[in-house]
Design goal:
Blueprint (H helix, E strand, L loop, with lengths): L9 H19 L20 E4 L3 E2 L9 H16 L3 E3 L4 H11 L20 E22 L2 E20 L5 E13 L16 H4 L2 H20 L9 E5 L2 E4 L12 E5 L3 E4 L6 E5 L3 E10 L4 E8 L7 E5 L8
Parallel strand pairs: 1-3, 1-4, 2-4
Antiparallel strand pairs: 4-5, 5-6, 7-8, 8-13, 9-12, 9-14, 10-11, 12-13
Helix pairs in contact: 2-5
């Protein structure tokens, strides 16, 4: 025996369709901002040092905002907030140099002078291109039932970026990534809606173009983080004072008292004779052995138990207890 389900009445079906369409309306609003962020940088890695140049605007937009410098500032802010990068100033670098040089004048007091030779070197340069910065209409959502037709029209805000990572040492382009932010909204934002809105401000990020910009920047930072070469932290000698060796980490790097390390000179790169590319590294020459005697928060102290010619910058490798050499 089969059971037949009675058809719903037209009025009930229309009510159902109206409720279903009402449920779709939030989807036609502004797309939710991203909640996923860049994963935290592992403690065993050094944060890469990057510099950001002003963006090139190829979008055709020529409105009230200076997109080139503004977009670069937003990228710098997002890179810093991710805590995966050390960012150095390059857009206004001349101002820094002028101030340091000015402080060397005899007109200025010695107290508080910025020492020369302490500016951090960038490892990578990030340059950007703005390919699209626009808002268009025409997006639609429709629900139909027999002769009943609901139509909701909307607008798209789209920001598309190309971010290129350059290795400063070699000039080689390591990666070029594309990032797009797309926001759909039911409300039409005209040029007049953006008048008086500062680029990068709270009001800007409440607009469709602002939300699309945020999505593009954050997506770009995630891709940059995935494209960066890893630079692992290595235990090394930071200084030698009166036969006491100071190491480049302490409790923060899990140094332990009585741990023994072999000391080697820096590894030697092996390069291709035709291209100059690095093929591998040869282990440095062994010059001595250390034992950790004290561990502070940021540095550890060690005594020399074997060898001579120890210097700042030499590398350490931990020795197991059963392999500790006899002095």
């Amino acid at each position: 025996m089969s059971t037949r389900i009675a058809p719903r009445s037209p009025s009930l079906q229309i009510t159902t369709m109206i409720l279903a369409f009402a449920g779709l309306l939030p989807l036609a609003g502004c797309v939710m901002t991203m909640t996923d962020t860049v994963s935290a940088l592992p403690e065993e890695l050094h944060a890469p040092v990057v510099a950001v140049t002003s963006f090139e605007n190829r979008s055709g937009f020529a409105g009230q905002w200076q997109l080139g410098s503004g977009m670069a500032d937003l990228l710098v802010s997002e890179l810093i907030q991710s805590r995966n990068f050390t960012v150095v100033e390059r857009q206004h670098f001349e101002g820094l140099v002028d101030e340091i040089q000015r402080q060397q004048s005899r007109l200025f007091r010695n107290e508080g002078k910025t020492p020369i030779g302490r500016m951090k070197n960038a490892q990578y340069l990030i340059r950007g291109v703005i390919n699209d910065f626009s808002q268009t209409g025409g997006a639609s959502i429709s629900v139909a039932f027999r002769n009943l037709f609901f139509l909701g029209r909307g607008h798209n805000a789209r920001v598309a970026l190309t971010l290129t990572i350059v290795d400063i040492e070699t000039g080689q382009i390591l990666a070029s990534v594309q990032s797009t932010g797309l926001v759909r909204t039911r409300e039409a934002y005209l040029e007049s809606n953006y008048k008086g809105v500062s680029f990068g401000g709270d009001i800007f990020f409440a607009t469709p173009l602002g939300k699309a910009t945020a999505r593009a920047i954050r997506g770009g930072v995630r891709q940059i983080a995935r494209s960066m070469p890893e630079n692992p932290w290595r235990p090394m000698i930071s200084a030698i004072k009166s036969n006491v060796v100071i190491l480049n980490g302490g409790k923060d790097r899990a140094f332990r008292e009585n741990t023994v390390y072999v000391v080697r000179t820096p590894a030697e790169p092996v390069t291709d004779p035709a291209t100059g590319d690095i093929l591998t590294f040869l282990p440095g020459t062994r010059v001595g052995t250390l034992r950790v005697t004290r561990v502070d928060e940021k540095v550890a102290f060690a005594e020399i138990i074997q060898g001579s010619g120890l210097e700042r910058g030499q590398c350490l490798s931990e020795v197991r207890n059963d392999k500790i050499p006899i002095p």
